């Protein structure tokens, strides 16, 4: 009788271990996938920017410098190979885009243009999607870390060497409000 | 994680320190709200199950008492071996009662479990909404996709209802087959942030699987109502028919009467109580969706502004009726007082929703 109870306890423990392990794997996969989703949105941004610049450059003859900076930042971001360089280039691009958006506010006929407002919406959406993808990545990292660090799943995580994730952190440059020079 | 695959955490070199504490403290606000709402919902479900269990027990006890007294009268049951009476069914465990309670709880759990496990088909036609493409409504599509990304869900179908009343709903038994519908008035009257708050709320319903949840609750409530209805009819006809004969029964009939009265009272009150629980669950899910919206947008201001605008312009419209009212972000039917009908409303009062959102703090 006693060994039956012991067996039952062992089975229950095994089931709990399996469940926790599977949840850890699922959370880690979700985190990896969330990271990939950021790349998807960044790619979309790279595709959209040349279109926007093409449409607005006739209206914004005084802003050639701003446009040139955007294109340059965009090309840098596309060219970047290492993850660290890519992150830096994307942040520079975000800064340049923010500046362009701010400058565009000063051109009322730009906003009246159907094509431009369409592209603007697409870019606003894409910028939002990038930040929401990052947010979801950070949310996923948080649930992964909660599992890796809290009892009892931390025991399973230790056994199968699950690592806590690293949060995506917004660099100082991006949190600062962009300075707009309206001349 | 194999060594060759560079995980996300490998990409930021030497950025090992844990998250900044202020962000973590802020984050617990809406996460705590979500946890509290989920806990409240479970308490309500347990109440519902207890109602069903009590009903089953009482019904079983009544059946047992009656089958014994009739059985002994007609010599079908040996009276000596059955010493149950109505009184003892109240003080000691009745076998039939336990069976009845078990049966009702398990039927209820199974029925709602089946609903929960196997989703269902989309109910978009319900509110007279028309699906729109990304070309027709680029901004709406973008916002929905943004919220889907923030929630980590596939992008749901998007539909528009041609009415000037601003409102929105979500439907679908599982996130893979979900849809979000908005009215034309919502698109014209809200700014982008407010629209995002509303879509975040609807995405919250999808993320929390509220359609399925409420269907499961409705099945439990329906089951209780059905059993009570059957019991009342049975008691009515059985009671009237057996009334004359009961006079000449031995003293244990007194216990029968008490049991019977309790059972009838319960049969009348239980369906009402079940409905109240259902509405309470519905209100909890609304709060939960509000908290989820803030989790997704990290911006309570948008949703607060949207709720204020929606409240100001709410009136019944085509596609909104008593059957669909619970689906919308703001109930299309004006609630008279803040508290007079609070128990019977599908949505919490707007002031309280806004107040709770303000309590989440500016993130």
CATH topology of the largest domain in chain B: Zincin-like
**For the terminal residues of chain A, how far apart are their CA atoms?**
88 Å
- N-to-C SSE string of chain A, H for helix and E for strand: HHHHHHH
Percentage beta strand of chain A: under 5%
Label the CATH architecture of the largest domain in chain B.
2-Layer Sandwich
Question: What would you call the shape of chain B?
Answer: elongated
| Helix fraction bin of chain A | over 70%
Top CATH class of the largest domain in chain B: Alpha Beta
Overall mean pLDDT of chain A stands at 83
Shape of chain A: elongated
Binned strand content of chain B: under 5%
Residues in helix, % of chain B: 55-70%
What is the correct CATH architecture of chain A? Up-down Bundle
> How many domains make up the coordinates of chain B?
2
Structural class of chain B: mainly alpha
Low-confidence stretches of chain B: 1-28, 75-86, 240-252
Number of helices of chain B: 10
Fold and architecture overview:
The complex is a heterodimer of chains A (183) and B (363). Chain A is mainly alpha-helical. Chain A has a single domain (2-175), classed as Up-down Bundle (de novo design (two linked rop proteins)), CATH 1.20.1440.20. Chain A is built from seven helices and no strands. In chain A, helix 1 packs antiparallel against helix 2, helix 1 (2-56) runs antiparallel to helix 5 (114-149) and helix 2 (64-79) packs antiparallel against helix 3. Chain A starts with a helix and ends in an 8-residue tail after the last helix. Chain B is 61% helix and 4% strand. Chain B has ten helices and four strands, in the order αααβαβββαααααα. Chain B has helices at residues 21-73, 86-91, 95-117, 138-151, 184-189, 192-207, 210-246, 253-297, 300-312, 350-359; strands at 130-131, 157-161, 168-171, 179-183. In chain B, strand 3 (168-171) and strand 4 (179-183) form a beta hairpin. In chain B, helix 1 runs parallel beside helix 7, helix 3 packs antiparallel against helix 7 (210-246) and helix 6 packs across helix 8. Residues 1-28, 75-86 and 240-252 of chain B have low confidence and may be disordered. Chain A binds chain B through residues 28, 30-32, 34-35, 37, 41, 83-84, 87, 118, 121-122, 124-125, 128-129, 132-133, 135-142, 145, 161-169, and chain B through 1, 6-13, 15-16, 18-20, 27, 138-139, 142-143, 145-147, 149-152, 192, 296, 298.
